[in-house]
Amino acid sequence: MQIVRLAVGDSALVLAAADLFDSGPTETWTATFLSSDGHHALLAITDDDHPIGFVTGVETTHPDKGTEMFLNELGVDPEHRRQGVGRALVEALARLARDRGCYGMWVAVDTDNVAALAAYRAAGALPPEPCVTLGWAFDANA
Predict the structure, then answer these.
(1) Cα(112)–Cα(131) distance, rounded to whole angstroms?
(2) Which residues pair with 51 in a beta bridge?
(3) Helices 114-122 and 85-99: crossing angle, nearest 10°?
(4) Does domain 2-122 fall into CATH 3.40.630.30?
(5) What whole-number distance in Å separates Cα of residue 43 and Cα of residue 126?
(6) How far apart are CA 129 and CA 7, in angstroms?
(7) Mind listing the pLDDT tens digit for each residue in 27-44?
(8) Alpha-carbon distance 62 to 65, whole Å?
(9) DSSP helix/strand/coil, 23
(10) 3-state secondary structure of 114
(11) pTM (predicted TM-score)
């Protein structure tokens, strides 16, 4: 397995890994993500170029803290879970965050997502903190 950092022009690699995402990525959204400063996508592929996992991260800068990495999403093919793919992807994103001068990295995860919690802990995440997540849904047609 190798981990590839995606860049502008790598939309086809993301689209080839569509099954790993919650919803199918689109060419437009993928191109926007890959061309946005501070947005990062890493793809785990097998020796025969089959995508088996991905992680995305977004740098956020605070006026009083500096820049941190938000681990936005981690996806691993079900047949390749519990084999270190998720851990390797998270570790690679953490290295990238350090290299880019981030002071830390964080992720929000559902408490019942056992696979994600295991991957994050294996990659060196600190113990979880209690947190409540609130969201807003906007009607795209409004």
Answers:
(1) 14
(2) 45
(3) 50
(4) yes
(5) 24
(6) 33
(7) 999 999 999 999 999 999
(8) 5
(9) coil
(10) helix
(11) 0.89
